[in-house]
Amino acid sequence: MARRGSVRWRLGAIALLASLPLLVLVILNAMGTFQASVTRGLDTAGGNAEVLAGSVDGYIGELDRLLVAVGAGVGARRGAEADEALADVLAALPSSVERLDVLDVDGTTVATSGPAASGDGAVDDDVLRSARARPGQLAIRARVGDDGGPPRVALARASSGESILVHGLVSLETLQDVLPVDLPAGVTATVVDADGTIIARTDEPARFVGQRLVDLDVPPEAMASARPQRVMGLDGEERFVGSHPVAAAPWTTYVSAPTEATLGSAMTRLLRVALVGVGTLAFALGLALLVARSITQPLARLSADADQLATGDLGHRTAVASDDELGVLAERFNGMAASLERRSAEVAAVVRSAPLPVVVVDDAGLVRSWNPAAETVFGWAEAAVLGRANPLPGAVDGAAPLGAQVEARTREGTALIVEVACSPLCDATGAPLGAVLVYRDETARRELEARAAQSAKMEAVGKLAGGVAHDFNNLLTAIGGFTELAHARALVHGDATTASHLEEVLQAADRARRLVEQLLTTSRRRPREVTTVDVDAVVDDIAGLLRGAMGEAHRLRLALTGAGQVRLDRDELEHVLINLTVNACDAMPGGGKVTIGTAIDGDDVVLSVADSGVGMTPEVAARATEPFFTTKPEGAGTGLGLATAYGAVTAAGGSLAFDTTPGVGTVVLLRLPRAGAPTVTEVTDGTAPPRSDRAQG
What is the pTM of this model? Predict the structure, then answer.
């Protein structure tokens, strides 16, 4: 369909405007003819109603003359002579005259052709009163369906010098003879009395006489109007209705004709005119379209080519060829497309060769470009993200500050710390088109910084602990020596109480000495005896000691797989296992199971100690290997157990990590290089193990 304002639309509008005056003229002529047909139908209905009213007036005049003749025939006769004269008159009249009565002005019956009893065939008192009130005039009233009898008309007239009243009952069937019989199909003629009851009708009189006209095809508004009307009948059919009052009686005649019979030819002509007009317009528009086709088709192809170019198909070229201005436009289009293709290729080459991840998004945040560096760092292939929402953080409108560091996740779910720089893309008018997002993976640098800070802290703590432990060890040597001498003397003199007290002092000194050894190990000021040891054998050897230290509420389970040998100080390994087992039991105050297992992972031996205790929060797990850090009540722990284990493992070239969830439990994972496996020399700097979401207090 041609768009508004296009060449095809304009030519069509010109053709339409050129044809419109002729079309309007023809339509106005047809509408005039149609309106004339409506007027003619109304006039015909009104005229027929007037003619019918005249016929009814003639009918009533004959009845009036009948009463005058009866009055003259009976005259002043009385008794049997009057009855006999009235019977002779009645015998000479048609059978439609059912009864005749002659009465004095005071209502006394002079002569009658019927019984005196009241009823369907009796004298109509209302008509008699009306005749007395209007001497010399006919009083008449239709009696339709009285007591179930046949329809009649009661009439009375004062005659013979107003000394008598003549009353008669005449069958209304004679009124049917007055109605026309040659009416067109669908046209009905109806006579109604003062209250709208039908007393004669051309269409099925036996069915409709006695009904009210408003219950049939003439609406009340047509009955209330003296002018012919075009109305919708109660039967749903549109009609012309004309009415006219009957002069000699309070009756009205109606003629109703369907409009279809009168307006059919006019409607046909109007339809033909409409078809001719539509055909004329179609011809004009078709001619205009044919003229515009040679112009609009090349323009439409150029428009489609431009749309194809806008979708990103920069290699597309138009095939429009012409020697006129359209041909020049096609050449310029192809030149522009070639220039865009070159510029786009240059930009794409720069983006794809960039060492940093570069992502181009549109104003809706959907990815339009994803370079190889982004594939390498984040794991998504370009085909998997094009046209979809950017899976990486970054504001499309460039609201994020330049160099902001945020957390991003790779396709596998690994969390990375990235620095993102956002540059908005706008068109020539400044309207936003999208943004260019450049990411730099800062995870390794942040980890190095954290490890360096942790190393410096651990080194400072280690130096402090080592210096204090060395001096304190000297003091413990003196305390222990003199306490042993005093203990021996107390035994010699038989002072059991003093000897008992001194034994407590010696035990405290021994505990302090072990604490000093842990401090010296943590600070690496105690020489290590590195040997090749079998991890499974060491665990199996101290299993009995561990079960004895655990108590009855806790159970030890070994899951040893023959993981192999490692190089480290055996005493330190035993000390580490004891500390980890004690920590696991402390994490399960109500009792539980501690599992020590071994496994091989590549060139490493993995030693694990698992419990189902209270677990650790991420904040506690992050500080669990710091010297003197503990979550146990005061006096229940030194905070050196995990620090010692961490120092021993890292000194052997291994690592310590936690897998912990609060309320679920903790798994401590010791990873040690297997003896004889190729190793990479690393500087053991005492940094904290990788943080995890599972830990132990």
Answer: 0.38
